[in-house]
Amino acid sequence: MGKGEGSISDEEWERFLREAEAGAPGAPEEPSARARMVARRLREETGPPEPWRGHRPARRRGGKGWYVVGLLAAAGLLAAALAPGRLTGWFGGGGGEGAPLAVESARPDQPPPTEAAQLPTLERPFKGSPAARWGDGTAGIGLPEARATGWMTKKQVAQALDRTRDFLVASSLSPAVLRGERPDRAIALINPHQQDVQDYLATAFRAPSRENDPLLLFSRFDAAQVRLVGDVVKTRGRITYREGERGAVEVSTDVTYVYPVAPAAAEGDEVTRTVVRREVVMSWDDPAKVVIEPGTFSLVSYKVDTANGGCDTFTGYLTPRFDTDRAGTGDGPEVDPYDRSTSMDARMREAGDAGCGTASRL
After folding, report:
1. What is the pLDDT of residues 265-281, one digit of tens each?
2. Residue 23: partners with Cβ closer than 8 Å, 6 or more residues away
3. With left for phi above 0 and alpha for psi between -120 and 50, is residue 109 left, alpha or beta?
4. Most buried residue, 70, 144, 165, 199, by CB count within 10 Å?
5. β-strand 135-136 against 272-284: which pairing, if any?
6. How far apart are CA 180 and CA 182, in angstroms?
7. Domain-wise residue ranges, the chain
8. What is the pTM of this model?
């Protein structure tokens, strides 16, 4: 589903972190200090503050669509409750026509255009979707040029960016994880000393709930109910970075994933799509200043906005609806899941505590 070319080995990564740590002055601090820093920064911002991994309950309403929960900011889920008369995959982009788009290097200023209605098929699962012109797997994710930043040299930043891409593959593109398996490789990249995050991860797979939902970080389908169509996941997004707290390299990922799916048991040709946009911010910390294992990062924040993945359902799996079991519309606002011109923060503010909304297209 994704590509991992250019990734560094665990041994190389651990070696340069050990070398960076050796002889560094001062005692490392527990990663819980990061939680306090984030909470303090949020308190200084305008609007109601959200605590580290704070939860903002949604206003529960009827219908099928999306809802908002909180992880630092908010995470919205948008189901495929299309308006009457609309069908899955309609009002999409080039339907496989036209040249592939260049990798995204900055936020676009408008959503993808809409064109004539076209339905997806088993042979062309991205037909009728803007994703038809997007990249396959990691090819659709823009990777910036490395430069010396914070405590890291240019080479170390390049290695951190490669490891960041490895996490995106292991969490959202791995065929095994998409089939519902536990994302152990992705979890292994998260700082084990970040206790609140480890508590969330332990609970999310044992007893998923609104607050402890594995879908906030990982894409998983129940293989007994849903099968992926083909071996390609389309992506569009970018990775950026800057110097963060205590000289850390803070990396932000904002990626939209498009998964073509069909009912697992059906022998027909019905195909729909689940669209997931995730923003994950991670901190590659200086081990001389923060307690962290070599080759791992600390999570700063994570948000998700999902179309046709389920609304107010907490099974630990994305639960797409198909034409045969879709009914009615949501009561929240209509949202275009392919629109990347709006930031995740703005999307969450617009969503507020609305109930299940309506996806304008899939």
Report:
1. 877 789 999 999 999 99
2. none
3. alpha
4. 165
5. unpaired
6. 7
7. 10-359
8. 0.77
Q: Report the C-alpha gap between 158 and 173 in whole angstroms.
A: 21
The Cα 207–Cα 40 span in angstroms is 30
205, 214 contact by CB (below 8 A):
yes
Whether the CB-CB separation of 64 and 307 falls below 8 Å is answered with no
Report the alpha-carbon distance of residue 120 to residue 261 in Å, rounded: 10
**Rounded to whole angstroms, how far apart are CA atoms 138 and 231?**
13
**CA separation for the pair 68, 169 (Å, rounded):** 25
Structure token digits, residue 115:
């064109």
Assess contact for 106 and 343: CB atoms under 8 A: no
Could you tell me if 311 and 64 are in contact, meaning their C-beta atoms sit under 8 angstroms apart? Answer: yes
Find, among 336, 348, 342, 347, the residue nearest to 113 by Cα. Answer: 336
Cβ contact 157:148 at 8 Å = yes
- How do residues 223-255 score in pLDDT, each as one tens digit? 999 999 999 999 999 999 999 999 999 999 999
User: C-alpha 314: how far from its chain's center?
Assistant: 17
Residue 5 amino acid letter: E
